[in-house]
Specification:
The protein is an alpha+beta fold. It contains 6 helices and 12 strands. The chain is globular, with a radius of gyration of 30 Å. The C terminus is likely disordered.
Length: about 375
């Protein structure tokens, strides 16, 4: 999902399910759910909810390199499934990661095994004339493999002697295995729900003008909403070109922002994501008057952040647990993501950069089901 030109919106819609038996997921794709595909230079991230501390589920992965930038670039959105958290900004985290193509290539190149510390074998050691694994070399200090084992054993015993003299037990193989098992158990895997993965197909919003069926569906929803809540636009007739003309009035509950939101997405009601780097977000309810102050500065460079993308209400019904267990629904209207305007990056850090997200609730969620 390359960065579009100013105010040229890209629309993301759910495509086919990402079947791991048929497709190999990677950081180069846009997807819903599944496990996050971190860039090769990024260590595995395990973010937690800023409100309750629970581990977060992966909601969406967006591959979004910027124009004129040499970096691969990903955004990962994760959310807490707690009923009191998913509708709040504190229950969400958005992580940005970047790397160069040379770093990807280096990470994908198989590393050569380290050279052995022992003396190199001669050309005849792999031939029939070589000693039979040193079994015939019984004398201490011999050159065969058996002699080497005896020497190693003697060295190990001598190294262990100071520990025995100090009263400390010498660890056996079983002791070491037990300790390794304890370490593994100490890092237990938490039960983080995984959503069924779907590809996200990306289209230009301007290309949706011919989607008459979707437009009619959106208009039907809008008419239902207006008849129930009081029309924000009263239809007074048709103008040239067959388009209907509306006159502004006030909605009964005063939610004109939501009505504008509905009209804006009417070309594609099933959209689950909108992308417009440095563009304008579509608020589902009245935003804070001090929104510019609400969006914090970049935590890495201290510079300003700019709007980049938002998740849409239609995504809610798409999020289903992969294991078929209990439903793990998220409750949100739209999730707005703001990222560093310079997309700053420190090479070699090994960690993703946390960006800012702002969550708005949906007052009429049933319209999108």
């Amino acid at each position: 999902m390359a960065s579009p030109t100013q105010e040229s919106n890209l629309i993301g819609v759910a495509d086919g399910e990402l079947d791991p038996k048929r497709y190999q997921s990677s950081f180069l794709i846009n997807k819903v759910g599944g496990q996050p595909d971190w860039l090769p230079v990024i260590s595995r991230q395990s973010p937690r909810c800023g409100r309750c501390g629970a581990p977060l589920a992966h909601v969406a992965q967006v591959y979004c390199p910027l124009d004129a930038s040499p970096y691969h670039r990903n955004l990962h959105l994760l959310a807490c499934l707690g009923a009191e958290c998913s509708g709040r900004s504190e229950g969400w985290r958005v992580l940005r990661s970047q790397c160069l193509e040379t770093e990807v290539a280096a990470a994908q190149t198989p590393s050569r095994p380290a050279p052995p510390q022992e003396a190199p074998l001669s050309a005849t050691d792999w031939c029939d004339t070589a000693d039979d694994w040193g079994m015939g070399e019984e004398e201490e200090g011999g050159d065969g493999w058996g002699g080497g084992v005896k020497k190693d054993t003697q060295v190990n015993e001598e190294a262990a002697a100071p520990e025995a003299e100090a009263g400390r037990p010498v660890p056996s193989e079983m002791d070491v295995s037990s300790r390794l098992q304890d370490l593994t158990l100490g890092d237990s895997h938490e039960d983080v729900p995984v959503f069924r993965p779907f590809f996200i197909s990306v289209v230009e919003e301007s290309d949706l003008c011919g989607e008459e069926d979707d437009l009619e569906h959106a208009q039907e929803l809008l008419r239902e909403y207006e008849s129930r809540e009081g029309a924000v636009g009263v239809r007074v007739g048709e103008v040239e070109g067959g388009e209907e003309k509306y006159e502004k009035t006030s909605a009964r509950h005063g939610d004109a922002v939501f009505s504008r939101f509905m009209k804006k997405i009417s070309l594609c009601p099933q959209q689950i994501l909108r992308y417009c780097h440095k563009g304008n977000p579509r608020f589902i309810s009245e935003p804070p008057s001090n929104m510019a102050q609400v969006v914090s500065a970049c935590g890495s460079c201290g510079g300003p952040r700019t709007f980049e993308l938002q998740l849409m209400p239609a995504l809610v019904s798409l999020l289903q647990r992969k294991d078929g267990g209990a439903e793990a629904e998220l409750e949100f209207g739209t999730v707005l993501v703001y990222t560093c305007a310079k997309s700053c990056w420190t090479a070699g850090s090994g960690s993703a950069v946390e960006e800012f997200c702002f969550v708005q609730g949906d007052p009429d969620q049933q319209l999108f089901k």
